[in-house]
Amino acid sequence: MATTSVSKKNDYFYYASGSQIRGTKNPNAKSVNARMNPKVDFFFNKNSKWQDEYELLRTIILDCGLTEELKWGKPCYTVNGNNVVLIHGFKDYCALLFHKGVLLNDAEDILVQQTKNVQSARQIRFTDVEQINDMMAVIRSYIFEAVEVEKAGLEVPMKKTSDFEIAEEFREKLEAIPELKEAFESLTPGRQRGYLLHFSGAKQSKTRTSRVEKCIPDILEGKGLNDR
Question: Is the pTM above the cut of 0.90?
Fold first, then answer.
């Protein structure tokens, strides 16, 4: 199997292709390969700015014993069917997204809240393979801690819908259209929060108004923001 480069850290040799691993203390190549889910392979095989980083992160996570699944079009790693960490990427970085990251101790002060409205998840961000190799021991410790959080059944106290900001443009519509107010209050809390975050996320009043106008028909039909 062809490889592009090899890096050494803590007696492990990780190939940048992410598909092989060998080490003097813990040669787990067969174990890692056996845990790879073919349904997820397309994510790692497609051309991407972060392809090497993705595959290295995959190897590290699988070496920690998690189960690989495909969720939201991304590699998601679980314990007993519960989400622990996900791999994703953006223009300027790729990241591990810990689903209950807010509950981790974050001893290294490296967890990032993606936006102010994200309550539970936290990221560790990376920009190259060398950074991941340098942080390998830390990454593994965060993964193991996240696994323990899940095994312990810890839950993140989530804000109630009433705690979320209601954009003034939407509040005016609710007061002016009784049917809209009734329809919105009939939605599930999750759907309500989705709309509130969508409306308040726009910086300009013009944009908020436009978003509200476009969503009114769906709200009246009892649909959520992403329902089709």
Answer: no
Phi-psi region of 106 (alpha: psi -120 to 50; beta: other; left: phi over 0): left
Q: Which of 170, 177, 178, 182 is nearest to 222 (CA)?
A: 182
Helix, strand or coil for residue 209? helix
- Measured CA to CA, the distance from residue 170 to residue 189 in angstroms comes to 17
Model pLDDT for residues 19-73, shown as the tens digit of each residue = 443 333 344 677 888 899 999 999 999 999 999 999 999 999 999 999 999 999 9
- Measuring CA to CA, which residue among 5, 30, 2 is closest to residue 128? 5
Q: Which residue has the tokens 């599930």?
A: 188
- In terms of Cα–Cα distance, which of 150, 144, 4, 145 is closest to 60? 144
